[in-house]
């Protein structure tokens, strides 16, 4: 598996800074816009469920499910960034993921945080 199949995060060159911290060093919050989130629900296809069931008997990583979850988290993050940008933010602070089962048919992934406008700390 390549790094893109089992890892993720914000794309290089994004005009929205997304951090899991309360602040961003070198910047101050000029305006708080409010909560934003990106949500997606993915179902698992029959083939991956059967493969995961068999693999769980012998142990080891469920690579197909790992890949699906990475794609799902990345999609939720992209939607979070779109929401922040649409509301006039240039950053999202305190970003988190929430993952739950959705009615036994799939996995719900929500990326959420606080949309803000950051300015350099030394700006008037």
TrEMBL record:
It comes from the Bacteria. It holds the Pfam family YbjQ_1. Belongs to the UPF0145 family. This is UPF0145 protein SAMN05216267_100149.
